[in-house]
């Protein structure tokens, strides 16, 4: 059951696993793709997480925000040791995603901004999992460092350290920034 | 507040790639199959945990703790999980107690990796480590000793695969196999999960053996393309070079330039521009 607060009243809304999965599966897959950089690994992770979630859905559905709980499971699965191969596999995986986008048409082919997104996506594949997770949680999930710290089980200072090192590895600021077309900076 | 340039660049990088997802209906079908396995595992884990853990952890595992306050903006995607369950408010761990237990855990020098170790030591799953940390904190506050010593979290980079495993994964994917085949192989070989099947399959491919399942033709072609693209990037070229080469060679786009460049590199031919 999800608890939805309407003013001072509380309304209990029953959400079945099927309803949840139908509504949120694409979003979870997108989240996993951004975390892993790998469509197959993302599928692998989401499948395993949802299978576990279904097995204990009664408990999860009692959370105020079941999706947040499941997203946390996806994050933990990504960070777990069994997925460590992804760090090394990322090169070809990152490329594959870039290539898929490239193959979708020529509109973006000569757009420096889009090329930069491709370059950045490829560089993201070189990061360690926690570093990448920090960037995803910060810039994709829009979480504060304190929230990220709690999710990762570390201090906010560690989050900032991960982010700083990740941005350095990605060569974001100032080197890459200088390559952004002037019109995009305005 | 104005968005920093690197914020926007990262957001764009994520958003421009986020939609490359698997077919949700296929994923859902697989979930249905897998969930039966996890239901069985979970029942086993709960029985095992009963003999090892105190009531505190069991309560923490069953009732999701309110680890952090809900997002005031109501954005479910950014809310942190484990909000208090509506049906068990009276029995769940009080928020103040939980925070005190977590504080004790972190103050003692324990971290994320230790929570994983404790979860394993206590025969618990690692999908939600908050109850593990809370139970550990509870024990610490009681003056008890934990079965794991505190240690700093290992750098992510150290948790990589061995070079042998990397080769095995590489062999699997470059042969055109995907998750679908890995799932079938895992079932066939009675392995724990598709990842293990990928390793075993890669091992056999490297040994020159054939697998009982063939890859899809389209995936074989894609894998071949990926190999060429990989050769292009391995030589030091990047996406900017691909754009230049596409113009030079009058190709449709950088993707085709990477393919063509990869072919020439593997054939030992020089490219007209340096990386």
Structural notes for this entry:
The complex is a heterodimer of chains A (186) and B (275). Chain A has helices spanning 17-36, 39-55, 57-60, 66-79, 85-102, 112-124, 129-140, 145-152, 156-169, 175-178, 182-185, and strands at residues 2-6, 9-13. Chain A is mainly alpha-helical and 186 residues long. Chain A has a domain at 1-83: RNA polymerase sigma factor, region 2, helix turn helix motif (Rna Polymerase Sigma Factor, Chain: A), CATH 1.10.1740.10. In chain A, strands 1-2 form a two-stranded antiparallel sheet. In chain A, helix 8 packs across helix 9. Chain A starts with a strand and ends with a helix. Residues 1-12, 83-110 and 173-186 of chain A have low confidence and may be disordered. Among the domains of chain B are: 54-67 and 85-152, no CATH class; 163-206, no CATH class; 217-266, no CATH class. Chain B is 58% helix and 0% strand. Chain B is built from twelve helices and no strands. The radius of gyration of chain B is 25 Å and the shape is extended. At the A-B interface, helix 1, helix 2, helix 4, helix 5 and helix 6 of A face helix 1, helix 2, helix 5, helix 7 and helix 10 of B.
Shape of chain B: extended
> End-to-end span of chain B in angstroms?
38 Å
Pairing-aware structural class of the strands and helices of chain B?
mainly alpha
The CATH superfamily label of the domain at 1-83 in chain A reads: RNA polymerase sigma factor, region 2, helix turn helix motif
> Which chains make the largest contact?
A-B, 109 and 96 residues
What integer value in Å does the Rg of chain B equal? 25 Å
The H/E string of chain B reads HHHHHHHHHHHH
Q: What portion of residues of chain B is helical?
A: 55-70%
By DSSP, the count of extended strands of chain A is 2
> By helix and strand content of chain A, what is the structural category?
mainly alpha
Distance between the termini of chain A: 47 Å
Please tell me the overall pLDDT of chain B: 72
Calculate the mean pLDDT score of chain A and round it. 72
